[in-house]
Amino acid sequence: MTDILADTVPRQQPAAALTPGIHMTDAANKRLKARYAAERRFKLIGLAAILFSLAALVILLTTIASNGFTAFQQTHIRLDLQLSAEQIAPVGTTDVRQIMQGNYGAVILAALQKKFPEVQSRGERRRLQALVSAGAESQVGRMVAADPSLIGQSLSIWLPTSSDIDMFVKKQVDTTVPEEQRRVNDAQVRWIDSLKASGDLELRFNTRFFTGADSREPELVGIWGGVVGSFYTLLVTLLVAFPLGIMAAIYLEEFAPKNRWTETIEVNINNLAAVPSIVYGLLGLAVFIGFFGMPRSAPFVGGLVLALMSLPVIIIASRAALRAVPPSIRQAALGLGASPLQVVLHHVLPLAMPGILTGTIIAMAHALGETAPLLMIGMVAFIVDIPATPVDAATVLPVQIFMWADSSERGFVEKTSAAIIVLLVFLLLMNLAAILLRKKFERRW
Amino acid sequence: MQNGTHNDLRQSEIEIKMVTRKVGVFYGEKQALYDVDLDIPARAVTALIGPSGCGKSTFLRCLNRMNDTIRDCRVVGDITLDKLDVYDSKVDVVQLRARVGMVFQKANPFPKSIYENVAYGPRIHGLAENTEHLDHIVETSLKQAGLWKEVGNRLQESGTGLSGGQQQRLCIARAIAVAPEVILMDEPCSALDPIATAHIEELMDELREQYTIVIVTHSMQQAARVSQKTAFFHLGNLVETDDTRVIFTNPKDERTQGYITGRFG
Predict the structure, then answer these.
(1) Which of B65, B58, B138 is nearest to B95 (CA)?
(2) CA dist list (Å): A66 to A60, A106, A202, A237, A422
(3) CA distance linking residue B39 with residue B20, whole number of Å
(4) Phi and psi for B177 in degrees, rounded to 5?
(5) Is any Cβ of chain A less than 8 angstroms from the Cβ of B34?
(6) What pTM does this model have?
């Protein structure tokens, strides 16, 4: 036996024999102190890192919030419009096209002039008309088209002001610069003050921002077009990437023979997760649009591209979740005579579901914020209609933010920040959903 | 150590349930088991003993082909269950494992209710005609496993919430719910306290009236208490096999003698 041998071999003497009581010396106490000091230093550094990132986050969020919150309100002017038949269309007309061709600009100008009868010269009239947004005409036109009985009536209505006036009211225009360099001149300032005093000009909730789509005029833009576009895009992404990802993960983790082929596939999936997203955009452009002739700017194509991008992430997360299921559960089921598919469907998959769902939602949140690949497939287009189907031309929230941030007009700054707030809210909601799902499905074993 | 008459197997009456001939197991290039010839008597407890790494668990897992799930594992030789060649390519593994059930070292109930744990096997094999029948199967299995009194009124609670010993008996109930012919137990008491162990040992004594039981154990007292036949494994070889009484009182091989008297292992 080996232990008998061990006794016959003389033990080597250590360089300096350690004696009992060695832990109570001064040197030992010093070493102990140094150890605690190192621990405290480490804690402090960690705390500093967390505080730093928290501060950065707070600065970012407050900047966005302070810039963006003003966009949720919009300056409006109350006007009493005389919808006379001469300027619009004969009473009783229901022809939408004829109604939309009515001279609403004149109607609005007349209402403004009634408030300021002293305005006479052409230049002044133009500046007076510039108080109201250029989109107000078509807004009134749509109202009349929807209800032709309004023709011949008078109508008291709140109309959005132009962006310059809106910016001035929100005190984002520097009034100290000389009048000719300002976008709001002294006469307009007087009119605004007078309208404010009479209660005909005020900041009202900007409904249009949540229901409208893109526009050339900052006061008329809305994010709903981007939200719907994002929704369709993510829907397609989810429907394609989730089932494919889970099935690929289950096959690779539970059924695939371990050979060089599956190893190659594994390595490539891991590599695909690291491919820059714009490359997926180019791939989508070449394959879906170039080869298959799918429409440009469509959420359907965007969804397919983002699905390709999310697939590796979902597969990796799902495989990790499947691997985390204890082998004892698999053995128990196999030992009872369950077939491999039953083992997976009855036991492994339900236990792995929280992990899979978390991974998927995080991949979806990532896809929601993705911009670059969608630029490549034409989702950066200027689209004023809200998409009705996933194959209509559309844009998505992050691309919308990108386009507004790119616009030079002052009024787009707050809209950009407001759109970022909306995007962040959606991201937060998705992450919250991930946490709740994990909590709900979490099980002990 | 012996408690008398019922532990003896009279040679003339023995009905053999499983037979292994020249069984060897390879993990890749490494051979873990060499030429094991063992007859497993029906309606009796056969104990497999031996020091760690001697191949007794590996051998046990050959009997219901659980080794199939291990990659690079290769089994040679013949194993028959009532003259059926277990490793024949025509044999359905699912059916085999329904006939040869298994209880593992660590209690591994599904993270489902107690009822679902026991009902799972009958359900996947389609054994119950209706819900009442299934209820009946669950109740009898839990009763046979001696667990009914403790959990009968809380079948919908999670199986993972039970104590270690209860969990292991739940696993036994789950195994007998599919009405197997053979039950393999891989050190079923190694993680249990003496009271829970005594429970399971009593249970085995009752179960052997109906089932053929093969148990791997590290405890020689346990082997002596519960088994009628004992096989001693060492370094991948089956050293000696005989009636438990003979092995523990009059072993032929020196190594067996050394192991049961605690001189090595």
Answers:
(1) B65
(2) 10, 38, 20, 33, 14
(3) 6
(4) -65, -25
(5) no
(6) 0.82
DSSP codes of every residue in B143-209: HHTT-HHHHTT-TTSBGGGS-HHHHHHHHHHHHHTT--SEEEEESTTTTS-HHHHHHHHHHHHHHTT
Would the pLDDT of B3 be above 50? no
Q: Helix crossing, B131-144 with B164-176: angle to 10°? A: 130
Q: In what order do the strands lie in the sheet with A73-82?
A: A154-160, A73-82, A201-205
Q: What is the mean pLDDT of residues B140-157?
A: 90
Kindly list the distances between the CA atom of residue B154 and the CA atoms of A138, A264, B161, in Å, as whole numbers in the listed order: 70, 50, 11
**Integer CA distances (angstroms), A184 to A136, A164, A187, A415, B145, in order:** 19, 7, 8, 20, 89
Beta bridge pairs of residue B102: B184
- ipTM for the whole predicted complex goes beyond 0.90: no
Compute the distance between CA of residue B169 and CA of residue B137 in angstroms, rounded to an integer.
Answer: 16
* CA A250 to chain CA centroid, nearest Å: 31
Determine the residue type at B157.
E
- Give me the pLDDT at residue B167, please: 93
Count of Cβ atoms closer than 10 Å to residue A281 Cβ: 25
* A335 with B66: Cβ contact below 8 A: yes
Closest residue on chain A to B66 (Cα): A335
How many other C-beta atoms are found inside a 10 Å radius of the C-beta of residue A139?
A: 17
What whole-number distance in Å separates Cα of residue B18 and Cα of residue B37? 11
* A336 contacts B66? CB cut-off 8 A: no
Residue A110's contacts (CB-CB under 8 Å, 6 or more residues apart) are: A82
Distance from CA of B241 to the nearest CA of A (A): 25
Give the gyration radius of chain A's Cα atoms.
33
Nearest-CA neighbor of A174 among A189, A162, A194?
A: A189
Q: In the A/B pair of chains, how many CB contacts fall below 8 A?
A: 66
* Positions in chain A whose pLDDT score sits under 70: 1-15, 443-445
As given in the structure block, the two tokens for residue B258 are 């050394």
3-state helix, strand, coil in chain A (%, to 5): 65, 5, 30
Q: Which pLDDT does position A5 carry in this prediction? A: 47
| Beta strand segments in B53-126, E | 73-81, 84-85, 100-103
What integer is the mean pLDDT of B84-110? 90
Helix ranges (H only) for A389-410 are 397-406
Tokens of A80: 């009493």
What's at A101, amino acid-wise? Q
First vs last Cα of chain A: how many Å apart?
43
Say if residue B161's pLDDT is above 80: yes
B102 CA: distance to closest CA in chain A (Å): 6
Write the single-letter amino acid at B171.
C
How distant, in Å, are the alpha carbons of A78, A133, A173, A214, B116 from that of A209? Answer: 19, 14, 21, 9, 53
Q: What is the DSSP string of A164-226?
A: HHHHHHTT-S-TTS-GGGSSS-HHHHHHHHHHHHTT-EEEEE-HHHHH----SSGGG--SHHH
Nearest Cα neighbor of B44 from B169, B247, B230 is B230
- Chain B residues with CB inside 8 Å of A444's CB? 111, 158, 160
